[in-house]
Design brief:
Blueprint (H helix, E strand, L loop, with lengths): L22 H16 L9 E4 L8 H9 L6 E4 L5 H14 L7 E4 L26 E4 L2 E8 L2 E4 L8 E5 L16 H6 L4 E2 L3 H7 L10
Parallel strand pairs: 1-2, 1-3
Antiparallel strand pairs: 4-5, 6-7, 7-8
Helix pairs in contact: 1-2
Length: 215
């Protein structure tokens, strides 16, 4: 087992969507930049650990090697949700730490769609950085909001059952769930949606009830 494991080179490309480029091409560029930073070549690497989620079954690691040099080294493709890139790095670090390899290359690459991984799609809405529907945008594309408030919340401090709140989309963050965008229409129209806190209000407004009992 190696006493220490070191990162001897690192680099990345500018963050962006790159709709005109293939995923392996994006990963290959970053890999070559990291190798250059380390003063090494792909021929010096003993294994490749590649993290990619959206094309997890498409052998992205092997396709990256096809672009930068197929040297016959082992390739491990990792997919682990938001920790995909970190998992690829961890696997490479563990291999060096365990003494299996002396030099490995770790690459994390993703090509995000316009909706992101958990997004519900685009949703036109008026407003600017100085209005109630405050939003952030890119200076290169000032009419496309990229970040908005995740919650609109208005509280009547004299009555806990008069709290109005809306999630900007829906109560579920999982793609293909029926509640992914179930509050979007109310968000657009400004319709009130009450959140109840007292037992009496919850019981009066409940639609369904689920009782959980321990085994």
């Amino acid at each position: 087992m190696s006493e220490n494991a070191y990162v001897v080179g690192v680099d990345m490309i500018k963050f962006g969507r790159f709709p005109d480029r293939a995923v392996p091409e994006i990963g290959a560029q970053s890999a070559l930049m990291a190798l250059d930073d380390a003063g090494l070549k792909i021929q010096d690497m003993e294994a490749l650990y590649c993290g990619n989620l959206m094309q997890a079954n498409a052998m992205v690691g092997q396709r990256i090697l096809h672009l930068i040099g197929q040297t016959g080294i082992p390739v491990v493709n990792c997919a682990n949700a938001c920790a995909t890139g970190a998992t690829a790095f961890r696997e490479g670090w563990m291999a060096v730490k365990a003494g299996v390899y002396d030099l490995v290359l770790c690459v994390g690459v993703e090509q995000m769609g316009k909706a992101g991984l958990l997004g519900g799609g685009t949703s036109p809405k008026g407003g600017s950085g100085e209005t109630l529907n405050r939003a952030s945008y890119l200076y290169s594309s000032p009419y496309d909001a990229v970040f908005i408030a995740s919650l609109r919340f208005v509280a009547d401090l004299s009555d806990p059952d008069k709290v109005m709140a809306l999630v900007s989309g829906g109560v579920s963050g999982r793609q293909f769930e029926p509640h992914l965008k179930d509050q979007l229409d109310a968000w657009h129209s400004g319709a009130p949606a009450y959140w109840w806190f007292s037992d009496e209000a919850i019981e009066a407004n409940a639609v369904t009830e689920q009782l959980l009992e321990p085994n």
